[in-house]
Specification:
The structure holds 2 protein chains of 2 kinds.
Chain A lengths: L20 E2 L1 E3 L2 E3 L6 E4 L6 E5 L4 H19 L4 H17 L1 H12 L3 H22 L13 E2 L2 E5 L5 H14 L3 E5 L6 H12 L7 E3 L4 H8 L6 E5 L2 H11 L5 E5 L5 E4 L5 H13 L11 E5 L3 H12 L20 H16 L3 E4 L14 E4 L6 H4 L6 E7 L2 H9 L6 E5 L3 H10 L4 E4 L18 E2 L4 H6 L2 E2 L1 H6 L8 H12 L20
Parallel strand pairs in A: 1-5, 7-8, 7-10, 8-9, 10-11, 12-13, 12-17, 13-16, 15-16, 17-18
Antiparallel strand pairs in A: 2-3, 4-5, 6-20, 11-19, 14-15
Helix pairs in contact in A: 2-4, 3-4, 4-5, 9-10
Chain B lengths: L5 H12 L5 H9 L6 H11 L6 H13 L1 E4 L7 H12 L13 E5 L3 H8 L12 E5 L10 H13 L4 E5 L2 H5 L3 H14 L9 E5 L2 H4 L2 H13 L4 E3 L11 H18 L4 E3 L7 H14 L12 E3 L2 H14 L12
Parallel strand pairs in B: 1-2, 1-8, 2-3, 3-4, 4-5, 5-6, 6-7
The chains are: A alpha/beta, B alpha/beta.
Chain lengths: 523, 335
């Protein structure tokens, strides 16, 4: 028997109690959608997981109206301290239900359980804990005293980190006093719906968080809704561009976090074993479904052969298979559509003359899979060096000098992230200074922390998420709000009261206008 | 067992270094090796530690751990009686289960070697043949602070008494002072002292005492230095200094062994020692070995655990796998 053929170690699905069908989460309740429901499937086996409601324009109206009511009547009037209590409570509930969330995420998305368990879910809790702490300290967010929430936030998130992207969107929005309507991706709605249950469990006031499911048209209806004050989108550059056009000329504030084609730059003095790990983690983490993935390896020509050789050896030890097995390193591709795109671009790479090498691994019969793949002999003009593949495919290019590395790294329409590998501290600083990327990792890759802002240059979008900067995307300086933006109000009855309340400084407010966080909050 | 002959080791070192193994040449070579990023190394080790080894894999792993153990007693209070008790445990780890494998070796101080050899009797021999080796610590263990003459005499005596393996310590003071040539020469001389009159040689394990070298860059350089000078095994620690064996340090040493094998084709052993007490931790080491240098390293001539209390925990786990329930400390024997 070979020890390396580890016996199956599947995480149990027994902890999940899924319903057959899920409705829309509007105003604190699950309600039926008025569009045609759709199925969510497991990309690893193509088995059906649940039937998901589809929100049409009328459902979007309801959700936005609920969010508006909750904002004007409850959430914007609540003290930051009380909002923080709710967020802390949500964070703790996420920790309590961590295993369940991890299993659901791996089932629905196809990512390995070791990643959903050790990366996604812990970061989700960390994000809520971090922004819970900000809720009563908005005066220090960098916008002057008493900044104001924007109002109702429309949030549309992708399928690669379903629950983590939800946390990135909801936690800062709520801390700043906004209410939200969030639409998860149609292939990965499951954890957002479990999160809706957590919202109920936390006794969050109805309407503060609304989750509507559906496809692109639902998202477009939400983003285009007249009573939305803020749009936050993570996803493809094409959709981001459409959203930017859609909201241009309106009062809506926008943050977009879009695609990337990050350069991972390896100098000849790099700590080589760790660099190999970093390259692997950079592009094969989450099957390469990462907007900031290090998909372009820029390696100094003098060590190119050694790095590629070591990389191939290392990739041969990766385990592809059942996402719920605790020893799986590479899970399933999220959808057939995405798999087709990876194949198309990969074939284009071969056609353009690059050399393709795929790790030897058995591909399961059902589901969507793509073996970890490296392209060598790639030229900067090749499609696989230009376009975002969003899959486990690495393009290896070379450089001779630091100047050439910087020039090649910046020669992309994107600018989300980059990595630098060298033992020389001064070189890290000098190169990082000249890279046009929102995040630059030094001797590591794909590390995230709620206190660190994340976002891109150029076609990678605008605005930052995370840290104080991420909070700023959901706030306006007090004076701007007073000057009076022409905010269309759906709930006229509440507008007078809320305008008066909005002018009141939250820091000075002592009277609670809603029931405070109650028992269980301090558990 | 026989280690590499000294002549080939020295010739190989000269070829690799491109010159005499003096301070300057060694420094140029050792400092030219890529550095180690501590955060990345520890992250990788932690990742390997999350492998989930269950059912049939766990069963195999537990038996393999036992057969890789150097069952050790290194106390000032060691007596012939204590050594006989240790040997009895080594030969028959679990009296209630005859299918339990034997350990690879017993590890004792040099003056205890005759008692160990005597107690082993016909079971004394190569672990590949299902027998048990005798390993002796030497060279003014654990500090290594004495003259070379004494270290060599210490080694020669243990070999003459029947030790199959010598666990020597490097001169950490000399290493930290940058006197790589001195460390090299001492290892090479001890290697020479491992020779027996019949031309065979005791296997040489070189203890780096990583807890005193402190940085990963030092550990990597000391590993290369020890292998260049002719060590058959590189070993983390004496067990007398904290921290002793850690997973990141062992991973790093395995990476050196892997690179050396790629370069020369020669297989060097690795022995983490000190601080590995639980089966769960030992399994992490097996995973790290298998995924770094390959499964073929999981054999007594290429990987050992220096441990004493680990054995009983593995036996308890083994009993649990057989019976389905945990027993207790009184269901395994103290040695």
């Amino acid at each position: 028997m070979s020890f390396l053929e580890y016996a199956p170690a599947p995480e149990s699905r027994a902890i999940l109690s899924l319903r057959d069908s899920y409705g829309l989460f509007i105003d604190g309740e699950f309600v039926d959608g008025r569009g045609t429901p759709f199925q969510s499937i497991s990309p690893a086996s193509e088995e059906k997981i649940a039937t998901i409601a589809n929100a049409n324009a009328a459902d979007v109206d309801d959700a936005v109206a609920a969010a508006r009511r909750a904002h004007d009547r409850v959430w914007s009037r609540m003290s930051g301290r009380d909002r923080g209590k709710y967020l802390f409570r949500i964070a703790r509930l996420i920790q309590e239900r961590a295993r369940e969330l991890a299993v659901a995420e791996s089932l629905d998305n196809g990512k390995p359980i070791k990643e959903s368990r050790d990366v996604d879910v812990p970061l989700v809790a960390a994000w809520f804990f971090y922004y819970a702490g900000w809720a009563d300290k908005l005066d220090y967010a960098g916008l002057g005293a008493s900044p104001k929430a924007l109002g109702v936030a429309a949030q549309v998130i992708p399928w690669n980190f379903p629950l983590l992207m939800l946390a990135w969107k909801i936690a800062p929005a709520l801390a700043a006093g906004n209410t939200v309507v969030l639409k998860p991706a149609e292939t990965t709605p499951l954890t957002a719906l479990i999160f809706a249950e957590i919202v109920q469990q936390a006794d969050l006031p109805p309407g503060v968080v609304n989750i509507i499911t559906g496809a692109g048209d639902t998202g477009a209806a939400l983003v285009g809704h007249g009573d939305v004050d803020k749009v936050a989108f993570t996803g493809s550059t094409a959709v981001g561009r459409a959203i930017a056009k859609q909201v241009a000329g309106t009062h809506k504030k926008v943050t977009l976090e879009l695609g990337g084609k990050a350069a991972n730059i390896v100098f000849d003095d790099a700590p080589i074993d760790q660099a190999i790990e970093g390259i692997v983690n950079g592009i094969f983490f989450n099957q390469g479904h990462v907007c900031c993935a290090g998909s372009r390896l820029l390696v100094q020509e003098s060590i190119h052969d050694e790095v590629v050789e070591r990389l191939k050896t290392r990739l041969s030890t990766l385990r592809l298979g059942d996402p719920l097995d605790k020893n799986t390193d590479i899970g399933a591709i999220n959808s057939r559509e995405q798999l087709d795109r990876i194949r198309e671009l990969s074939d284009a790479g071969v056609a353009e003359g690059a050399d393709r090498w795929s790790a030897p691994c058995e591909i399961p019969e059902n589901g969507f899979w793509y073996a970890p793949t490296i392209f060598t002999n790639v030229q900067t003009s090749n499609r696989i060096a230009r376009e975002e593949i969003f899959g486990p495919v690495l393009s290896v290019l070379t450089f001779r000098t630091p100047q050439e590395a910087i020039a090649k790294a910046n020669n992309t329409p994107y600018g989300l992230s980059a990595g630098i590998w060298t033992d020389k501290g001064s070189r890290i600083l000098a190169v990082a200074d000249q890279l046009r990327a929102g995040v630059v990792w030094a001797n590591t890759f794909n590390r995230f922390d709620p206190s660190s802002p994340f976002g891109g240059y150029k076609e990678s979008g605008y605005g930052r998420e995370g840290g104080r900067h991420g909070l700023g995307a959901y706030l306006a300086p007090a004076s701007v709000t007073r000057a009076g933006r022409p905010a269309p109000r759906a709930v006229e009855a509440a507008s007078a009261a809320s305008a008066a309340a909005a002018d009141e400084k939250p820091a000075r407010r002592t009277r609670r206008t809603t029931k405070p966080a109650k028992k269980g909050a301090a558990k | 067992m026989s280690g590499t002959s000294l002549v080939t080791a020295r010739e190989r070192a000269l070829a690799v270094l491109g010159g005499e193994p003096d301070d300057a040449t060694l420094r140029r070579y050792l400092h030219g090796i890529a550095g180690v990023d501590a955060v990345g190394l520890e992250q990788r080790a932690a990742g390997l530690g999350t492998r989930s080894i269950k059912t049939s894999s766990k069963k195999w792993a537990l038996d393999r751990i036992i057969s890789l153990v150097d069952l050790t007693t290194l106390e000032g209070a060691d007596t012939p009686g204590k050594v006989r008790s240790l040997v009895a445990k080594a030969m028959n780890p679990d009296p209630a289960d005859a299918t339990t494998p034997r350990v690879a070796a017993v590890c004792v101080y040099g003056d205890m070697v005759p008692y160990a050899v005597d107690a082993l009797g016909s079971v004394h021999g190569d672990p590949d043949d299902g027998l048990i080796s005798v390993a002796a610590v030497a060279t003014a263990f654990p500090s290594g602070r004495s003259s070379l003459e004494i270290k060599l005499a210490d080694t020669a005596e243990a070999v003459a008494n029947g030790a199959d393996e010598i666990d020597m310590v490097i001169d950490r003071g000399a290493f930290l002072a940058g006197r790589y040539g001195l460390v090299f020469d001492q290892i090479a001389a001890v290697k020479e002292a491992c020779r027996r009159p019949d031309g065979t040689s005791a296997s040489l394990k070189v203890i780096l005492e990583t807890g005193e070298l402190v940085t990963y860059d030092n550990v990597r350089r000391a590993s290369w230095l020890s292998i260049l000078a002719g060590g058959d095994f590189i070993k983390t620690s004496t067990g007398k200094v904290q921290p002793a064996a850690t997973l990141p340090v062992t991973l790093l040493m395995l990476e050196v062994v892997r690179d050396w094998h790629l370069m020369t084709g020669q297989r060097i052993g690795v022995k983490p020692a000190g601080g590995i007490r639980a089966s769960k931790d030992a399994i992490k080491y097996l995973v790290t070995v298998a995924e770094t240098v390959g499964e073929e390293w999981l054999q007594p001539h290429l990987f050992r655990f220096g441990a004493s209390s680990l054995l009983n925990d593995v036996l308890l786990q083994r009993q649990k796998m057989a019976s389905g329930h945990y027993s207790g400390a009184d269901y395994v024997t103290i040695d």
